[in-house]
Amino acid sequence: MTMRRVLPALWMWTVLGGLLGFLPFARSSALPSIEQALPRGELRIGVDPSVAPFAGIIEDTLIGFDIDLGRALAERLNISVRFVPLGFDGLYDALYTDQVDLLIASLTVDPSRQDRVLYTPAYFDAGLALMMPLDSSILTINDIGGRRIAYALGSNAHSEANRWARRVLPFDSIRLDSETAALESVRTREADAALVDVIAARLFIRQHPEERYRYSTVTTQSHVIAVSADNAPLAVLVTNALTHLESIDDIEVLRARWL
Amino acid sequence: MLSVYIMRLLAIAARLGIILVVFGAFVPPQPRAPLGEAHTVETIQPHVCVHTRLIDEVETWKIQKTLIDVREMGARTIVEFFPWAYIEGTRGLYDWTSVDRIVEHAQNQGIRIIARMGLVPEWARENSAEINTTLNSLAHTNYPAFADFVAAFAVRYSGIIDHLIIWNEPNLAFEWGYQTVDPAGYAELLRVVYATVKDASPLTQVLAAGLAPTLEPSGSPNGLNDLLYLEALYEHGAAAYFDALAVHTYGFTQPAESDPAPDQLNFRRVELLRAVMMRHDDAHKPVFITESGWNDSPRWINAVTPAQRITYTLDALAVADTWAWLDSLCLWAFRTPAPTFNYPDYFTLVNVDFQRKPIYTAVQAYARGFDTP
Question: ipTM of the predicted structure?
């Protein structure tokens, strides 16, 4: 057989093989069973209880958005759940050594780990946002030229503002000691907008329901769930459950509860 | 017939060559990192040191740029991690390329390196065919193999890198291969490594690993209190097998001057570790604080504000300057090759894209005697 005949044949079999490989997980009726994914009959979730408001410990009880999300997933999967508190540095090693089944710990996709880890779609975007009064004429970063933008000294927002200084119209920087101070400066009208992370913006808006603010996301930092690459059936089930919970707004309810 | 095939092959090769040349013209050239004139570090505070993360850098210019920034900040010393798994991926075959380029650029900037040794290649891990292991799982039977690697490193860089830290935070389960922490086992590792290194390179200084500051009680699956662990190391005879002690001491939410106490994690906890050394007649050995600092993440419960971080860090450097037994205070971490997008990013002094944070400028002013910004 000449190469001209071999190459199309190889392509055809590669594509067909790929399709067949995904087929078992492509139809919801063919989802892997929970027994196949979790033969222990328990979902062990690794969490980092040091990052508010995602996971924390109050009076020996784990609380937070990530904890509630883990419970909701377990309920959807109809399986009992056990949370395993871990330090950030030990999260992935716990997954690699099968001490937990998945990690819900404000993680983002780490490309260097994708040989050993499968990630779900995002369940929260913790990127930076511009927060301003509802009636502000600032809609996007293109509108901040000549305006007063507050942010925390030494923060990611500070770095982002430095980047902007090189590519948008000049704006006045107000560098303050914390995100809270930056947000307060919008409230007192010393700043036209605050550059903070979405978490701070949402918490501020929630804490001041009588006042009217809005935020506009300017960078992305997607929180995802990590599953061992050795347990593809679990990744499929968790992704399916997450998608379902998102579709019925259950995750939005959790966001509203904590953020 | 054969000549027709040869002609076709030549034609294909010519087309490929043209494509490569054309597309090559659109690829931007990589920044070069030639070694220039040799520098020295200008500092009035020689104990200022930073922990770098250079080994995972792909591009040499980033290594050079990092070390230039370290020098310009006034830090005379860096701690850098040299993973065994990267260098001896195949047993007996050493690839020193990644180490050499860091060493030559550090020398060029006039910076001293303290090397941290660890991270186990797959062939040396515990039962790696049967159980899931981590890169910190070293089979007891391979202690001599690790010792051979450390000795080879010591010999190759003798006179350039003379301080080697053996392992990292062995009082944490995950740093001990997610097994129960074992002071006796670590003391044995030190014994094997010390003897081999000293035979090969007598002047090399062997540093016992920095322990994680933790209050984990005896029997905890996560680890063991650093004070208890150090005490246990001495009880297992480890004193004879290290020349200096590496220490990790973080401030967490407390100021630098906060009094040390066994039930508190703060910067001056190093004084309690020093007291353990003194109780075991080891006062003559120096201490290297190889990890320290504060974190200014807005989300982490153990963090402080950026302004507090600057104040506490400068206070810590001033306090440390009064400790005659201390060689260096190394801040974790100067810069990382990639962000974690989580609170560890708020330990750094320089961003991934080389933006200098306010903490960098403050430490630079302290180390070089500039006016405080």
Answer: 0.84
d(CA B62, CA B89): 24
| CB pair distance less than 8 Å for B359 and A178 | no
Best to test chain B binding among A156, A160, A176 (most B CBs inside 10 Å): A156
> At B98, phi and psi to the nearest 5?
-70, -30
Using a CB-CB cut-off of 8 Å, the residues of chain B touching A184 are: none
What's the pTM value of the predicted model, to 2 decimals? Answer: 0.88
Q: Decide if A154 and B134 are in contact by the 8 Å CB cutoff.
A: no
Contact list in B for residue A178 (CB cut-off 8 A) is: 298, 305-306
Give DSSP secondary structure letters for A218-247. Answer: -S--EEEEEEETT-HHHHHHHHHHHHHHHH
- Mutate which: A97, A176, A180, vs B, most B CBs within 10 A: A97
Query: What's the farthest any 2 CA atoms get from each other in chain B?
Result: 89
Among chain A residues, the shortest Cα distance to B348 is held by A154
CB within 8 Å: A154 and B178: no
pLDDT in tens, chain B (373 residues): 556 777 787 788 778 777 766 666 666 666 689 999 999 999 999 999 999 999 999 999 999 999 999 999 999 999 999 999 999 999 999 999 999 999 999 999 999 999 999 999 999 997 766 667 788 999 999 999 999 999 999 999 999 999 999 999 999 999 999 889 999 999 999 999 999 999 999 999 999 999 999 999 999 999 999 999 999 999 999 999 999 999 999 999 999 999 999 999 999 999 999 999 999 999 999 999 999 999 999 999 999 999 999 999 999 999 999 999 999 999 999 999 999 999 999 999 999 999 999 999 999 999 999 987 7
Interface A-B: count of C-beta contacts within 8 A: 85
Contact state of A156 with B345 under an 8 Å Cβ cutoff: yes
Torsion of CA A238, A243, A248, A252, to 10 degrees: 90
Contact B240, B193 (CB under 8 A): no
